[in-house]
Predict the 3D structure of the following.
Amino acid sequence: MLDATIFVIDDSAEVRDSLDVLLGSAGYRVRTFASALAFLGEVRGGWTGCIVADVRMPGMSGIELVKEVVLRGLRLPVIVITAHADVPMAVAALKAGAVDFIEKPFRDEVLLTSLKSALATPVDHIGRPGGASAESRLRTLTDRERDVLLLLVAGHPNKVIGDRLGISTRTVEVHRAHIMEKTGATSLADIVRIACLFGSDRKEQS
Amino acid sequence: MTSLPIAGANIVVDRKWPVFAAFVLVYVAVSLAARPHGTAEPQLLPWYAGTALSFALLARLGAGMAPAVIVASLTAAIWRAGGSATAAALAVQTVAEVTACLAGAALLRSRIGVMPSFSRVRHVVWFFIAVALTSLLVAMPVLFEAFREGGSLRSSSIAFARQGLATATALLMIAPLLIIGAGSGQRTSRASLVTIETVLQAAALAIMSWEVFGRFVNEEIHFFYLLFLPLGWIATRHGQPGAVLALAVIYLAPLISDWFVPHREQAIIELQIRLIVLASTMLLLGAVVSDRRKTQESMLERQAELAHVQRLNVGWEMASALSHEINQPLTAAMNYTQASLRLIAMPEPDMERTKAAMRKSLEQIERAGQIVHGLRDFMNKGELRLALTDVAEPVGDAMRLVAAEANAGGIRLDIRDVDSLPPVMADKTQLVQILVNLMRNAIQALVAAQMTGTVAVTGSLIDGKVEVAVSDNGPGIDPAVRTRLFEPFITTKSSGMGLGLSISRSIAEAHNGSLSVDYSVTGGTVFRIVLPAAHRVS
């Protein structure tokens, strides 16, 4: 596994270099690029490994990069990292086909675990979010909890969600806690990721 | 300034006896320096400044110093009279002087406070009233004495008037310097008083004084008006401190010349009337000039406060982008530190790599700290502090502050040729403010136009002036607002107060510089800050 190459794409030189050192210390080969365009200019069809890309970059954003990677049919999973973890951005990244969405700064285990699972993902599944476990977890949610989840993912604060659904803010918080508990989500990014799966699930249904 | 009254109180409490002794010595010396005139007893001393000293002492330090005035007045009178003075005459003279000065000083203190700066016309007018009161009271015994000795109404009035004029002249010319000179905080700030101009002013004053009181004192009294020229010049340029100093210096001239060429009785009256007019005019002029300066200073303070409010506003606007900017070095530092932990945990730790990673981690934490400090300094109230500043410093600070917004918008920041410029005399935070305002305007214009451009900050030295140009290759400024660009509350942005450019220009002008704008034909905009270059004293 440690033969794999990680392609780090970030416009910030210090983040790039620090990821190089960190992933290097974990035994990965690392190649760094200052922009998505620089990476796309060099990438070849046969490359394997995993991409770790920042979202906010001049020229081409990380999310556009994910789309481009999927479009070109590259066999490289993309993990998106960003300091601006807002819900719409996470949704956009995961819908575009990123395998994970990690908020900066992060503990190394979070990134390394994500890398490990991304590298273990069969290449055919790359760019297609979903999986049996996620589906089963989502099935345990009540209808009301699903409503709350959808509004959460749309980026609404608790108060607005309460107003929309005709329930109190306190109740929204309770639902939110239940969603976290049932799905095993530990962070905003987790919720978004799960909601994304749910969203695509619903699309298939309709 | 608030600490000064306390300092005055300390003089009374801690240094009472030295002040007491010094006052008595100076008083006696001054009274001996005046040449006596006439045959009446006691003789008239037309250039006697003792009363002015007493008045100033009581006005500055309060009625508590009255014993010093009594001792000084008695000592001087006994010394002058030798053994011939009667105890009654001495008592009358001393009581008159002490009462008069106490009354005048109390009036002054009650009306304009214990620390008058005479920088208000109102102060000067109250001073005139106190002078008139003191002079009248001092001259009273002379009137009674003249009557008692059987003088006519006319001759008694003349004796009364002569005493009153002499006292008023000394009070007007000497007392203001002593009152504002002792403990005035303003003068210390002007370290370099010896300039070509002040030397010329002193020379003009000396020449005119010699012409008026030396050569022509008893003949050509109309030459007196020449004195208005140097005094007017000094009062206009230096305000009240200059005026009161020059008046005191002029007073020395007749005091000295009286010993070489004894003044005629008639000449003395004419000189003193003219000196009173001169002193009154100059004190009023000095007050007007000082008052105007104070107003200007307080306007500068207001402007600094307004600038601070705008900085606060801009700071809050930038906070979100800056939190992102802080996140980058924090992320990097965390990565380096975690890498170091991994490297150490290996069976054979690579200490060199670990060290390098730790060092880099440190650098990143420092950078995050710099960003936090930069924002804090920027939003601090901070008093206006002028210092020799290398332009590269505020340019670097401003760049760190706006880098986040530039990065977010994909705008490149380009700094050129600012390292080799001579320093400028400026408040660094305010320079950072101008630069932040201009750079953010440019960045936001580029982002709004969805252009990926460059904002360049370019330094140059033109005709001995430091120019910093902030240019962009953006869409340019809407012609509709161009003519009113620097007016307050003019803005094309949906958020913001529209104060940035107006405040930036007033900051530049307060630094004796300018802020102007040029439009390039290709659409870009160039703002130029021009500041006078300062010279480093090595």
